[in-house]
C-alpha cells in the first residue's frame, strides 16, 4: 500500500509555543482520515506544513515520498480554513483561474457540481451566503484529481444541510488512490465517512486507528471516545 | 446525513444488517443487482471503503455474488432466506429478553406479557 503522507519527527514551534511535537504519522492511499483535536492542538499547523505554507522546525513531511515543493503542490489539493479567494471574483473567473493554475483541474466535474447549486456564473463571491461560499470553495478543491486532499475545517460554520452536502461531495469525488485528510472538531458529523481517526493533543498524535476498530474495541463512537480523551 | 447508525458498533456491521434485512424482506430478491459501492456510500452517507467491506462480508457468507463486469447480485435460495430470517430474529429476541431482564422481569413474566401484548 502506497503512503501518501508521511511525517517523521515533525515539529513546529512558534517562538516558545510548540505547535507540533515530534509527530510520526503515515497515511495510506485510498483512505479518508479525520484529523481530530481541540482548538490549538496543531491541526492547521500540520496541514500547512504539508501544503508548504510553513517550514518545519525539526523533522520532515513527505508527500508521496517527496519533500513539499512545487511538484508536490501539483498533487495536493488544499482547502484552507478561511476564505482564500478574492471576493470580487465570479464563478466564471474562478473556473478560469483554477484551470490556469492546476493541470489536474476537472472543469467538467466542477461545472456539474456547480450546476446542482443553481448559482449564476456571473455572481461574485461577495454576494454569496457563507454556506454557498464554502460549497463553492469545496467544489473547486474536490474538482482536482489530486493524490492528497487537505481539508481544513470544511464544515465549520455552515448549517447541517450544507454539511451533508459537503460530506457527500467529498465521498463521491475523491479518487480511489487518493487520500483525504479532514481536520475538524465536529466529529459526530464526519465520523461516518472516515476510515481512520487521528487524535492530536497538544501537538502530539495520541491515537491513530481505524474507526471500525475503535468502535469495536471501545464500544463507543469516535465522538464519545474523543470527549473522554479530551475531557476538560 | 443518509442512514441512521447507532454509535456503539462498527458501521460496516450495521450496513450488513440493513442489507440482510432488505434481502429477507424481499426488497432485494435473488438475482437482483445491489447498488454500486459509490452509490450506496452516497445514499447511506458513509465511506465507500465501509460499503466495500460490508459487501465483501456478504460475499464471504455466500449471500451475494460478484460478477466481474456487471456488479454484485443477491444469490440466495428460499431455504437460506429462512435461515437468515431466523438469524436476524434470534438476535432481536435475544436483545429484547436482555433488556426486559435488565428491567427485572424473569423469562416467564416476559413470555406472559408477550402473549397478551397484541391483544391490549
Topology:
The complex is a heterodimer of chains A (232) and B (120).
Chain A: E1 3-14, E2 17-28, E3 32-36, H1 43-50, E4 58-63, H2 70-73, E5 76-79, H3 91-101, H4 107-117, H5 130-142, E6 148-152, H6 160-173, E7 179-184, H7 187-190, E8 196-201, E9 204-210, H8 211-218, H9 222-229
Chain B: H1 11-25, H2 37-44, H3 48-60, E1 64-67, E2 71-74, H4 78-102, H5 107-117
Antiparallel strand pairs in B: 1-2
Describe the structure.
The complex is a heterodimer of chains A (232) and B (120). Helix content of chain A is 35%, strand content 27%. Chain A is of the alpha/beta class and 232 residues long. Chain A has a single domain, classed as 3-Layer(aba) Sandwich (Rossmann fold), CATH 3.40.50. Chain A has a six-stranded mixed β-sheet, with helices on both faces. In chain A, strand 1 and strand 2 form a beta hairpin. The longest helix of chain A is centred in the last third of the chain and has 14 residues, at 160-173. The model of chain A has no long low-confidence stretch (mean pLDDT 93). Chain B is mainly α and 120 residues long. Chain B folds into two domains: 11-76, Orthogonal Bundle (Arc Repressor Mutant, subunit A), CATH 1.10.10; 79-117. Chain B is built from five helices and two strands; from the N terminus they run H-H-H-E-E-H-H. A two-stranded antiparallel sheet of chain B has the order 1-2. In chain B, a hairpin with a 3-residue loop joins strand 1 and strand 2. In chain B, helix 2 crosses helix 3. The mean pLDDT of chain B is 90.
Amino acid at each position: 500500500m502506497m503512503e501518501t503522507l508521511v511525517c517523521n519527527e515533525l515539529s513546529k514551534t512558534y517562538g516558545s509555543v510548540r505547535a507540533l511535537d515530534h509527530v510520526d504519522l503515515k497515511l495510506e492511499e485510498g483512505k479518508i482520515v479525520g484529523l481530530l483535536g481541540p482548538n490549538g492542538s496543531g491541526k492547521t499547523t500540520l496541514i500547512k506544513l504539508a501544503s508548504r505554507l510553513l517550514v518545519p522546525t525539526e523533522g520532515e513531511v513527505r508527500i508521496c515520498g517527496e519533500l513539499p515543493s512545487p511538484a508536490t503542490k501539483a498533487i495536493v489539493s488544499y482547502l484552507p480554513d478561511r476564505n482564500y479567494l478574492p471576493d470580487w471574483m465570479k464563478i466564471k473567473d474562478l473556473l478560469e483561474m483554477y484551470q490556469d493554475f492546476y493541470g489536474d483541474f476537472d472543469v467538467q466535474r466542477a461545472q456539474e457540481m456547480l450546476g446542482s447549486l443553481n448559482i449564476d456564473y456571473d455572481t461574485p463571491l461577495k454576494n454569496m451566503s457563507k454556506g454557498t461560499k464554502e460549497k463553492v470553495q469545496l467544489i473547486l478543491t474536490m474538482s482536482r484529481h489530486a493524490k492528497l486532499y487537505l481539508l481544513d475545517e470544511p464544515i465549520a460554520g455552515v448549517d447541517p444541510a450544507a454539511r451533508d452536502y459537503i460530506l457527500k461531495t467529498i465521498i463521491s469525488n475523491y479518487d480511489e488512490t487518493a487520500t483525504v485528510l479532514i481536520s475538524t472538531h465536529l466529529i459526530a458529523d464526519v465520523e461516518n465517512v472516515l476510515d481512520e481517526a487521528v487524535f492530536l493533543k497538544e501537538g502530539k498524535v495520541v491515537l491513530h486507528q481505524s474507526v471500525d476498530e475503535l468502535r469495536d474495541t471501545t464500544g463507543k463512537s469516535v465522538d464519545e471516545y474523543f470527549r473522554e480523551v479530551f475531557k476538560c | 446525513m443518509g442512514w441512521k447508525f447507532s454509535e456503539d458498533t462498527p458501521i460496516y456491521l450495521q450496513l450488513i444488517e440493513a442489507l440482510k434485512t432488505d434481502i429477507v424482506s424481499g426488497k432485494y430478491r435473488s438475482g437482483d443487482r445491489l447498488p454500486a459501492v459509490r452509490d450506496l456510500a452516497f445514499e447511506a452517507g458513509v465511506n465507500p471503503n465501509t460499503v466495500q467491506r460490508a459487501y465483501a462480508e456478504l460475499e464471504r457468507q455466500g449471500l451475494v455474488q460478484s460478477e466481474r463486469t456487471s456488479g454484485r447480485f443477491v444469490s440466495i435460495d428460499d431455504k437460506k432466506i429462512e435461515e437468515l430470517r431466523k438469524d436476524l430474529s434470534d438476535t432481536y429476541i435475544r436483545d429484547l429478553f436482555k433488556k426486559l431482564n435488565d428491567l427485572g422481569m424473569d423469562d416467564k413474566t416476559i413470555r406472559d406479557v408477550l402473549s397478551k401484548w397484541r391483544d391490549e
